[in-house]
Amino acid sequence: MTTFREFEQAGWSDNSTAHAYHEYVGQVTVGCIPDLLDAAGLKRGDKLLDVACGAGYVAAAAHDRGADATGLDFAASQVRLAEATYPKIRFVEGDAEVLPFTDSEFAAVLNAFGLPHIPNADKATAEAYRVLRPGGRFAYATWGDPAKCIGFSMVYDAVRAYGSMDVGLPLGPDFFRYGAPSCARELLGGAGFADVSIKEVPLVWRAASPDTVVEGLARGTVRAAAVIRRQSPENQVRIRQHMRDRVAQYRQDDGGYAVPSDVLVVVGQKPG
Asked: Coil, helix or strand for 124?
């Protein structure tokens, strides 16, 4: 049986998925990068690691602030895309749960939206702690309360209404788990981090049409896309229409759409 890690790695290693995420979803996630870098207390010259770097947005923003940034992802296609997009930055293929770096190597470790795709977030957080120097900070961004993160919770609402979540996928963490403040504090505190703080960052998914958001979720994600694909053809039609109707509620005066997609930014410091 395919494990959750194998499922996620295979999905994100698909070039079309990587590029679709870059095209559709990336324009949403970049909105919290300034808050993530500020949470890490990033200074010019700091050595920074961007875990689950994807197309490299966070590493690139850190580089622009003068940091010595390295990006790491478990999907070779993401690493290639990041290298092609930001050729001046070092990107490596690797496992968030077994980081290929020495103890106390970095001033900051960041993770933007990667935790729901990692089988064991406790291990990944412990590894972030290990490679941080004393006084260094680990900060992560993740999707917030589903009621405020409509852009991503609506796909699961649609499936529950017109299909089934039980479609034979490997069991993985709840997609919104790490956006619960109690879970965030437990996760970082369990790894030894102190002074844990949490900030809610309101983001919106701006789109020209409802279909833009629907296609982004159906083509630029792994787990959500797989859930949709495994429904019956009739239910797929109903699910997509339900999502279009949800997006339509957020029509703006200019004719575009702005779907709430709130994020939590969480940070903790390694004592030292």
From this structure: helix
